[in-house]
Amino acid sequence: MTTVTKEDTPAPTPSAAPAPTPASPATPAPAAPPQGLAAYPVDVEAGDLYRHAAPDVAQAWQQVARGLEALEDEAGVPVQELVGRQILELGMSFRLTGEDDERDWPLSPMPLIIGAQEWAQVERGLIQRARLLEAVVADIYGPGRLVAEGHLPAALVAGSRYFARSMAGLPPRSEPAIHVYAVDLARGPRGQWRVLGDRLRLANGIGYALENRLALSRVTGSLLTDIRARRVAQFFADLRGGIARECQRENPRIALLTPGRFNQSYPEQAHLARYLGFPLVEGRDLTVSDGRVYVRTIAGPKRVDAVWRWIDTNALDPLRFDARSQIGVPDLFEALSHGGVAMANRPGAEVLEAPAFAAFMPGLFSRLLGEEPILPNVATWWCGQPREAQDVRARLDQLMITPAFGQSVEGLPHGRPVAGASLDAEARAALLAAMERRPVDYCGQEIVSLSTTPALINEEFVPRAFTVRAFVARDAQGQWTVMPGGFARLSSSREMHTTLMGEGDISADVCVVDPAPGADTVRGPMLSALPPGTARITPASALAAPQTVRRGGGILASQAADNLFWFGRYVERAEAGVRVIRAVLGSSIDVDAAAGHNPEVIARLVGLMVSRGALSPDQAALPVPQACRAALADPALPGSLASLMAAIRATGLTLRDRFTTDFWRIASRPLPMFDGQRPGVMLRAARELLERLAALSGLMAENFTLGPSRLFLDMGRRLERALALCETLRALEAQIDTPEALGVLLDLTDCQITYRSRYLAVPTRAPVLDLLLLDPHNPRSLAFQAERLVDHIARLPALGEDALPEAPLLEARALLAPLASLPVAAWDFARVADVEARLLALSDTIATRYFLQFERADLPAKGSLLA
């Protein structure tokens, strides 16, 4: 059993920051310059990244520290607040395990700074490790010599929950098994870098590394460029090119396959898809036909050439792997095995993530590569071997005990490693007994002491222990490339027992800095140029190649169209609900309100809230303030504003790759705060909601190009607005000839000013109905909504080539015909009810033609406002 040799190289001499020159006593003392890291407290024995840096790298640390202090002085607010604002602007968030709500991403303003010489060693070690992992995966699912010759125990391979038996023995493939993966690294007190673990299943953190750099660059301006930090943009271009290389078309379509919006890293996946230009799809968006993969779009199935998967192998195909999977794609395995789709990474590659494999990696380097590891593993002993198991039990107090295959086992709750010395007598005895019963489930690992790094916490530089997640990918030539930097996790503890972000942890950008500006140092945005000094040189011709000019927003998957359509409907439904609440509240405190003199009109409005699900029938008898509070804030009512705003947020989560940051920030805001049942306070909350919804409507109109995405958003709004008007007319039918009811109609449709500009008299039936039903120039009229629906549907792509109108367009034209041809005198409430029925039928026809057919149990019912 080979273990990792302890670090025995002497620590480098700490570099001292240059002392500031004192002011002359004969001249007035100038303002105190930024002190930077002069007072930085640190235990040198911890191997601090700054204190042990080479002089030129230490100078970069000091330059950044002084720059952050100067930025804080100039802005007049803590620099952490400036970074926090950028996090909000970018929509950076994450979710802790077991939590439903997202948290803002915790980012330190001070990056980790690593010199090019030190990073070059890390880079070589990562590429060496990538070569080894590729060779091991190829052997496990190919000839199997490592197991047959005794270099790997069969139980080690077959015992992993990530071993994909279906992938074993498939015909050899030309494309690699690994395209992109992440490595968790620790830096010890003497500067030695070690591998804590490999992440071949999901490259979690790669999107956060990109977002960290973007947020920090926005806050600090040219500061990162000034210290010669290498840029990361080329890495993502290489990653995209590496996946595209395995496709069979010149301009392949690459999809990012996500588990969905409830996944812990969904915000990261959405950001990556948007940045790389990949369609963000779920399993139900994809289908397999004739051995090829297609995405269901509004224009019919479109071929997908490659999939960057962010779901486990077991969940990929319910017909081949785990039949219980609800997020996979039936027959995806068949398409993959016959070359119908490329996949990053190949199913089953994550078998090497099992901590137990670390015990055999040193020997595999020698066996397969004939080399010693540049980046050694943390010393690991797998208890599946009798001598190692006995040794681990004997040294329990000196080791971390971890699940051998990364899952919960007896004595280790939640599958998390435990320091043996931290166990009390009872827990220790229970763990030892469990290890005796099933030793193969456990590993012992060396307890690693971590280096520290300066972190800016509460306006003070303090040392924090850290780990770095680095990223490796194949480029368009099939060669390995390493991101020049990565994503760091900082903890207040010297030990990290999990690689997930936990309570109190913060992240930091990782900057690799070159020693001096050279001819290849490109100034400019930190995300848009070739990183200087990379180990692999990209030809200038590749960077200068002209891009093909394109217009449009790419494909629109059926599920995305569905979500856009319903996002527009929920926004419009919420606006209609707020207007009714505002009308009822206003009548209770303002005698000049439109319905203030007619209690029957108020009763009809309360009945309208009941029919829309904003109130229960029992709540209709409550006093007006209590009823309105329930309609605003009761999440148990499907039509309440609380439920509708939650539906807007939930639907918006599925569209994060399409929404701008401003749009998403408004959409995800919670309900306004209000206390008690005071009508004035609730009225202010209603007005604030109306302003917010108006802002969303404005962004929908202005921030989406006139393509399918905007068409479906606006179709949802138009259809919902028309349904709301029909239902409101029917609710007020008995009072329609009263000025109060007509005034309410004008208020609810926001048409008071338009009416008054045309008619000086009090509202009367015919002019009001003409304005609301038939006026094609009024953006609130039924005729206007019908015209827009016809126009939008006509712009959508057709499935056939016969140029004949499809069912949605025919129904929309039939809806418009009476509104465009009949005078107001011909309209009665039976005709209004007929229009409402046609609108509901049109909604169903649109869904049948363009959307996937599935139920949403987690959102308010789809359908009319009566639902």
Compact description:
The protein is an alpha+beta fold.
Describe the structure.
This protein is of the alpha+beta class. The chain has four domains: 40-229 and 356-374 and 451-504, no CATH class; 232-344, Rossmann fold; 379-446, Dna Ligase, domain 1, CATH 3.30.1490; 558-850, no CATH class. It contains 27 helices and 21 strands. The strands form five sheets. Strands 3, 4, 5, 17, 18, 19, 20 and 21 form an eight-stranded mixed β-sheet that branches. Helix 15 (558-589) packs antiparallel against helix 17 (624-633), helix 15 runs antiparallel to helix 20 and helix 21 (708-731) runs antiparallel to helix 27. It is globular. The protein starts with 54 loop residues before the first helix and ends in a 17-residue tail after the last helix. Residues 1-33, 496-502, 518-546, 854-859 and 863-867 have low confidence and may be disordered.
Radius of gyration: 32 Å
Strand content: 5-15%
Helix content: 40-55%
Overall pLDDT: 85
* Structural shape: globular
What is the domain total for the residues? 4
The low-confidence parts are: 1-33, 496-502, 518-546, 854-859, 863-867
What's the topology here?
Elements: H1 55-75, H2 79-90, E1 93-94, E2 103-104, E3 112-115, H3 116-140, H4 145-148, H5 154-158, E4 180-187, E5 193-199, H6 206-220, H7 223-226, H8 233-244, E6 254-257, H9 266-276, E7 280-281, E8 286-289, E9 292-297, E10 300-304, E11 306-309, H10 332-337, E12 342-344, H11 361-369, E13 380-382, H12 386-394, E14 399-403, E15 418-419, H13 425-437, E16 442-446, E17 452-457, E18 460-474, E19 480-482, E20 485-491, E21 506-513, H14 540-544, H15 558-589, H16 599-611, H17 624-633, H18 641-653, H19 661-667, H20 679-702, H21 708-731, H22 739-748, H23 752-758, H24 765-774, H25 782-795, H26 807-821, H27 829-850
Parallel strand pairs: 3-21, 6-7, 6-11, 11-12
Antiparallel strand pairs: 1-2, 4-5, 4-18, 8-9, 9-10, 13-16, 14-15, 14-16, 17-18, 18-19, 18-20, 20-21
Biased composition (Pro residues): 11-33
InterPro entries: ATP-dep_Glu-Cys_Ligase-2, CP_ATPgrasp_2, DUF403
Organism: Novosphingobium pituita
